[in-house]
Amino acid sequence: MKLQKGMKPVISAGHGGMIFKVYQCLAGGKQYTHKNGKTIHEGVINRMMASKLMWKLYLLEVPFGELQLAVEDMSLSKRVAKFNKMYAKDKDIYLFSIHNNAGKGKGSEAWTSKGQTKSDIICDKILENIEQEFSIAKMRYDTSDGDRDKEANYTMVKDTNGPAMIFEFGFFDSSDIEWLLNDTKIDELLDIVALSMQNIYLNGIL
Q: Which residues touch 182 (CB under 8 Å, ≥6 apart)?
């Protein structure tokens, strides 16, 4: 399956952010206190990464949209409805939802809906580039269907009308937090993602 050029990302940050030290997270949890006493909130990291990625896309002159970057959390159903409204107006977009994993593992992974769709093509290309170019890449794949992404009936990839993917960058409750809080490493990672998106926009995927 090929992908035409002109596909534009719509960036979404998972969960919610922080308002005067009050964590905005409808799902509850999504935070972890490490042995040094520092509590890490996934949604805050998600927003930092989403903001940096959009800035890099802006500098690369790649058109992009924003689904959810507000500090307040937004329900999954509202996120899906917002994206579907955007997709109804422009079929050349795809959803890129940024998260971090939990469970004290290591590495990054990405999820799409079940079956072979445009989501798989976009997701696989970005994962491939991260694996090849990120200096501390540890990837978590499911290659049983011939590509690198994992598949599930998650709301954000199952109920969206257009291509959609969830990227889980590292584990916020493991030693991965060392690079997740390292600006140099985050910039390195997001430069790869942004350049991948630029290439997809300009050239498509053959």
A: none
The DSSP code for 166 is E
Task: Tell me the one-letter amino acid at 147.
Answer: D
Residues 31-69: pLDDT tens digits? 999 999 999 999 999 999 999 999 999 999 999 999 999
Q: Please classify residue 28 by burial: count the beta carbons closer than 10 Å to its beta carbon, then call 0-12 exposed, 13-18 middle and 19+ buried.
A: exposed
Buried b / exposed e over 110-149, threshold 16 CB at 10 Å, is bbbbeeebbbbbbbbbbbebbeeebeeeeebbeeeeebbb
pLDDT computed for residue 200 by the predictor:
97
Residue 98 is which amino acid?
A: I
Distance CA 96, CA 103 (A): 22
Which portions of the chain are predicted below pLDDT 70?
1
pLDDT in tens, 84-97: 999 999 999 999 99
Domains and CATH numbers, the chain: 8-203 (3.40.630.40)
Helix (H, G, I), strand (E, B) or coil at 93: strand
